[in-house]
Amino acid sequence: MPKFTRRELIRAGLATGALLTATQCTRQQTTQQSSGGPTVNTNQIKDVTLRFIGTGVSQINEISQKAQEDLGFKITTRALSTDENNQIAITQPKSYDIFDGEYFSLPLVVPSGNLQPIDVNKIKLFDKIVPYFTTGKFQEGAPVNTSQGTAPFKVMFLKGQDSTEFSPTPTDFATLIPFQYNADTLGYRPDLTGKKIESWGELFDPKYKGKTSILDISSIGIMDAAMVVEALGLMKFGDKGNMTREELDKITAILIEQKKAGQFRAFWKAFDESVNLMASGEVALQSMWSPAVTQVKAKGINCIYAPLKEGYRGWGGGIGLSKNLSGISLDAAYEYLNWTLDGWLGAFLGRQGYYSAAPETAKKFMKPEEWTFWYEGKAASADMVDPFGKTLEKKGSVRDGGSFEERFSKIVCWNSVMDEQKYLVQKWNEFISA
Is the C or the N end of the chain the one with fewer CB within 10 Å? Predict the structure, then answer.
């Protein structure tokens, strides 16, 4: 690992000759695989504790334990719902050091000033990040290039070191460092639907009355609902990611009508809830996240993540830094940011169906048969086992939706925060409480 630059030594208060000598004597690598970030004094870093807030999707004990082993400092985590995570990030800035959040949340969180811009020059593998996050471009002609909603690249950069204003073009200051993302769709149990699900519109099919569920997070659930009503020809939006009041009124009326007709069995906020709904057979078809599908499969229940003809709803998550971080704690936080891109974490998440922000490094930590199944969409040459030792897919199976390029290129909208966000929340609450 590279040593401190002079600027970093000055910033960390280690630039005096005597302390520099002492630091050089006690300095050692804090990871076996890491290639990025400044190396810090292990006598100091072992006393650091970084407090994480995030959702249950990534606040996993095995991840924090591995990071602590590799980096040498302590990590505490709080697994929250998306809404709780955003609320704490905005209203309780002294209660966390690291914000593990989604890009669609940034128009809500960043204006609070509670996150400090990330200096991308300190991120050693920044150039390995999938370019879509920084440029908004994927394969030529891919639907994702013109996708609606809060696409990550739209909120990836800030205009300056002290800015809370998003930059439409790349700068040296990032909001989050991405580490996981996916193309989301509907999950279903073929034993309960009795057929292959091919369209978002089937969520409202009376055949599944009382056996469907939709995600109860307004900024995400509304996008799923929009995909459904557009698929059925009930509405056509100017921009699903930024609806007008009139569009919100109309889609809310449609949702309330469906709810009163008994179409929905339940609503869920955390992926554990969706796992239980699907595994128990209470629902046959619902909004789902990739780890929820894999957990259902791990229980020995056939669950399919449907590659629907209208395309996918995308989401992306990353790591942000609290404005309160400074000194050795800030150095430790940058060590963690670099660790997330080194590959171990990307491989760990990849075995659940997520994608790494730096696939090239994740590949080094995956078996060849894992890489070809999860990323290349090829038939499994061996059983696919998740990070917890449970078999998810049998030899010969193919990932729902195909390769990374196939799935990601077909994202047509992203989780979103709208201009009429307050009105959206109001209308969504009307639907949930109707």
Answer: C
64 in the Ramachandran plot: left (φ > 0), alpha (ψ -120 to 50) or beta? alpha
pLDDT at 364 over 90: yes
Residue appearing with tokens 């990836």: 156
Give the DSSP per-residue string, 62-110.
Answer: HHHHHHHHHH-SEEEEEEE-HHHHHHHHHH-GGG-SEEEEEGGGHHHHG
Contact 131, 396 (CB under 8 A): no
Statement: residue 34 has pLDDT above 80: no
Residue type, 278: M
3-state DSSP assignment of residue 385: strand
Amino acid identity of residue 345, one-letter, is L
Taking the CA atoms of residue 315, residue 321, residue 322 and residue 327 in that order, the dihedral angle to the nearest 10 degrees is: 170
Residue entry with tokens 């996708």:
147
| C-alpha neighbours within 13 Å on the C-beta side of residue 21 | 2
C-alpha closest to that of 28 among 13, 49, 15, 42:
42
> Tens digits of per-residue pLDDT, 107-132?
999 999 999 999 999 999 999 999 99
Which backbone phi and psi does 251 adopt, to 5 degrees? -70, -35
- Of residues 422, 400, 414, the one with CA closest to residue 198: 400
Indicate the pTM of the whole model: 0.86
What one-character DSSP code corresponds to residue 121? G
Q: d(Cα 212, Cα 101) in Å, to the nearest integer?
A: 27
pLDDT at 19: 33
What's the mean pLDDT in 34-57? 73
Over the chain, what is the mean pLDDT? 89
Beta strands in 254-311 (DSSP E): 264-268, 285-288, 304-305
Average pLDDT over residues 38-44: 59
The residue type of 382 is: A
pLDDT digits (tens, 9 = 90+) for 307-345: 999 999 999 999 999 999 999 999 999 999 999 999 999
Q: Residue 198 pLDDT > 50, yes or no?
A: yes
Q: Which two tokens stand for residue 248?
A: 């919100």
Tokens at 257, concatenated? 């009508």
Tell me which residue of 242, 257, 101 sits closest to 179, measured CA to CA: 101
Q: Which helix (H) or strand (E) segment is 55 a member of?
A: strand 49-55
Q: What residue ranges in 97-239 does DSSP mark as E strands? A: 98-102, 115-116, 118-119, 157-158, 166-167, 173-174, 177-188, 212-215
